[in-house]
Amino acid sequence: MAIATVNPATGKTEMIIEPHSREEVDQRISEAASAAELLRQTSFAERAEWMRAAAAILDDQAEGLGELITVEMGKPIAQSVAEVHKCAKAMRFYAENSEQFLADVTLADPSTVSASRAWTRYEPLGVVLAVMPWNYPLWQVIRFAAPALMAGNAGLLKHASNVPQSALFLDTLFERAGFPVGSFRALLIGGAEVGAVIADPRVTGVTLTGSEPAGRSVAAIAGDHVKKAVLELGGSDPFVVLASGDVKAAAATAVRARINNNGQSCIAGKRFIVHTDVYDEFAAEFTNLMSALRVGDPLDPAVEVGPVATESGRNDLIELVEDARAKGATILTGGSVPDRPGWYYEPTVIADLPDDARLVQEETFGPVASLYRATDNTDALRIANQTTFGLSSAVWTNDPEEEEWFVANLDAGAVFINGMTVSYQELPFGGIKRSGFGRELAAVGQREFCNLKTVWKA
């Protein structure tokens, strides 16, 4: 895949960028390694000042950066601008809280370990490689970079090949804000070259957000070199509506959950599992709202759904829908490619899915929702847990016992009650099963790439 900006709304190539040579990659890793040594010696206060300056750059340039994001990957412009501001907010969060998150912890009674004092401390690992996707070109990177840099690490970025201008902006952002030269470096390379970077002895760990095959590959290489890895992979999140829930509110939220980012989000609600007593009401409301969505140019503020980011991604979506159609599923709305330039796909709702339909198990990355009728709460839980994924989930109920039962039994890294999944810098983010391992965000996410050092004193 070429390193290029190809506008998904038109299919036209906007910019082609030359990849970095092996010599350039080596130089950038060296710069990051040197920066990591400097960052270890800086204070939280210094790093916080630089991080706040970087956040200010984002807020100041939000409109232009939003347009860049939309041209590179196609999300509606208001969502792109909101992504930029969300990044700035997370950066300020870590500037404010990192010293507390990484503070030493002293054992209350050191005599239990025959010491006069015993404590633990968090120290940076060094240079960490981030392999990031295109769907949130800035947010996916910043939610790694802000905690990593505030912990005293340096970062390397292998970004998705279709968002190179976003990568180049991030390559200079932190230095512009005052961080040492090389603190964060983008590597314009192909996927086949990632293994060599992970194996480099100057690189101490890797984090990846992406597909399951990519995660398997990165984890295998990291394991072979005994390096820390954090993986956030795919998701086919269940959105469960029970008979006690607010059906109209659930349907309205379900639409936002499914079409946010043009449906291209790992944590989007994708499988809508509805108790039979309210299924017909929900299905009618949900389908009507999905069919009324305005599809068009994502730079138009009135547009609600833009194109799928890549032609191959749309082809994958078409294959999944056609497989379901051929096996007898019911298309309640959509299910076609609009007659227009670019990589658009109609907002689609599919019901009556047979067990052998690929949609039952595979992730849909686009504005396609699958609808399931559950005979009772036990059946709803069975359907929710039947995939190999376990990223997030949502449950709509006004019954406290139902709420507790689903929270306890859903196979997921998160459960959202009467709402849709959203990533917040204050809350840990990550999954189980084939959705990956490790956590991002909050305090625990920052500590993933720190050495937890135990100190014992006689």
UniProtKB/TrEMBL annotation:
Superkingdom: Bacteria
Residues annotated as domain Aldehyde dehydrogenase: 3-455
Keyword Translocase annotated: no
MF GO annotations: aldehyde dehydrogenase [NAD(P)+] activity; succinate-semialdehyde dehydrogenase (NAD+) activity
Keywords: NADP, Oxidoreductase
Sequence similarity: Belongs to the aldehyde dehydrogenase family.
Protein name: NADP-dependent succinic semialdehyde dehydrogenase
Natural source organism: Microbacterium aurum
